[in-house]
Write a structure and sequence with these properties.
240 residues; mainly beta; Double-stranded beta-helix; 12-stranded antiparallel sheet; 3-stranded antiparallel sheet; 15 strands
Length: 240
């Protein structure tokens, strides 16, 4: 392992982001927020900050009674903190890779667990994938982001994005699916023969099916959060 003088170490590990945009990648796994107002951040993601910044949990009825009920049902997966003030804020989430996305009158679904920060100009709402039939014990919650502004999402390692077309549906494992375009409504497909062969549910026996025109983002890592929610056989889902 190489040795550094203190001055060399400070220079080589110092801040690198140009600090011009609201959200800047300070490192692959570290987001710099140039705050002048307010943004929403994932609870527990603050690494450091400079300047005058205050952190507050969202008010009980700040988003209306309907969203309050959804937040309560979704549990800790959608715990967001308001960061207000002026300064530089640094965010990270368990060493996951950060991707900064600019929405221009667009919409995107993101798994609750994979949201790092949301600019205040973006509207967000919680959507629950609810069964039409089957025996799923636990619902899966996602967040729909729409409008114009910047959002930051996280993935374990490099994300892979598939184009979805009418001629080419895409099948993914729920435990690795991170995000998808807001116009798509995935179905849940169960491979009964594979489930019977294995003797229990697995990532292969339960699949998300994306049809239409859009995209879907996956990561090369299974989230434990979703493994527990895909242990039971399910069929189709709708959004409520």
């Amino acid at each position: 392992m190489g040795r550094h003088s203190l001055e060399d170490f400070i220079k080589s590990t110092g801040e690198r982001a140009p600090g011009q945009g609201v959200f800047e990648l300070e490192r692959e796994h570290l987001l710099e927020v140039n705050l002048n107002g307010m943004v929403w951040t994932k609870m527990g993601s603050m690494v450091a900050y400079t300047g005058d910044i205050r952190f507050m949990r969202e008010g009980g009825l700040e988003h209306g009674l309907g969203k309050l009920v959804k937040i309560s049902l979704a549990g800790e997966g959608i715990s967001l903190i308001k960061a207000e003030g002026r300064g530089k804020l640094y965010l990270a989430d368990k060493g996951k890779k950060v991707s900064v996305l600019k929405l221009e009158n667009d919409s995107i679904f993101v798994n609750c667990n994979d949201i790092l920060a949301i600019e205040n100009s973006i509207n967000w709402d919680i959507k629950m994938m609810r069964k039409l039939s089957g025996v799923m014990d636990n619902e899966v919650y996602n967040v729909k982001l729409e409008g114009t502004g910047i959002v930051a999402i996280t993935t374990h390692h490099d994300p892979l994005t598939f184009r979805v077309t009418k001629e080419r549906p895409v099948f993914t494992s729920p435990s690795v699916t991170v995000a998808w375009s807001g116009n798509l409504e995935p179905e849940i497909k169960t491979d009964i023969s594979l489930k019977t062969l294995i003797g229990k549910s697995s990532g292969e026996s339960v699949q998300m099916v994306f049809r239409g025109e859009g995209f879907v983002v996956v990561q090369p890592y299974e989230e434990v959060y979703f493994q527990a929610q895909t242990e039971k056989r399910v069929s189709n889902v709708i959004y409520t």
